[in-house]
Amino acid sequence: RAQHQAALKTQDSLSCPICLDLLKDPVTIPCGHSFCLGCIKDCWAGDDQRKVYSCPQCRHTFTPRPVLNKNTMLAELSEGLRKTRLQAAPPAADSPAGSGGVECDICTGTKYTAVKSCLMCLLSFCEAHIQPHYEIPAYKKHKLVDATVGLQEKICSLHDKLFEIFCRSDQTLLCYLCTMDEHKGHDTISAAAERAEEQKQLVESQREIQERIQQREKKVQELRQALDTLKRSAQAAVEDSEKIFTELIQSMERRRSEVKELIRAQEKTELSLAEDLLKKLEQEIADLRSRDAELKQLSQTEDHIQFLQSYQSLSIPSETADLASINVDPHFSFEDIRKAMADMREKVEGIYEKEVKRISKVTKIQTVLIPDPKTREELLLCKRHTQTK
Q: Distance between CA 28 and CA 288 in Å, rounded?
């Protein structure tokens, strides 16, 4: 255990307090603290105007700027520890990051798959390079998350600081320096607190959505049942209408035959009476013509005795029918029957039209899905959010 603690202390002493990684091109400044050459140069670049330089760790000031020389011993120790750590890395670190993986920001040459991202360092680390965050006490306060892309999107572009604050006035994320500049005096809250508030709203929105889904699923089920009932009812109505129309057609065919037979029977009766009377009248005309010829011949006889004897024996044929009782209509027809049939057709068509209109007014299912105002607002917000993405 003592050996392990000594190893951790050695790693801690070989870490740069600025980048928190193993020293690279280490330099030691007059106060005794060591840093990566690149890290301390970047740190002191902002102090060139004041000509006063301070240690990032103990805040000791120097004037003029100290000369930075590479610490060869620390460089060798740091490089040796780096090689040892890479050799001891698990097999998972031996595979380069694939097209879908997050690359380690520390690896040089071949980039290995990152397993964690640090929100303090704003870097992603493979299994080998993440070890200092587990072993060095100064790193243990850093917040590690699963390896993720787009870490730079979590940094303020103005101050290069992590977004930690949410401005409710402007509805945007801020770093703590933003609250001292252009967002000073705004309604601000920590990003975590804002997330907690919006998480509550999200849960409530999910609950409402689930409730509406259940309501609509219930309505869908009811509509499906109604549609099935409607289809069955419509099919039964079609079958009944076909049966009824078939029976009506058969009935009309029977009625047509009956009317036709009635007309023909009446026609036969009237024709029989008329033809019988016609024969009698024609026979009477023949008899009268014969008697007229005899009378004409008799009128030409000169013998008075013969005339009287013959005239007494001749008589006028009796009338077969009373001419006054025979009323012959030159325009006789079955017009009354035709008119009765036309009236019947109009009545049947009238009844048909009336019943068809009544059938067409049978209640139908009508649905108009109009979202309520709150739903429309949510839909618009979702649409805008999708478009911004």
A: 169
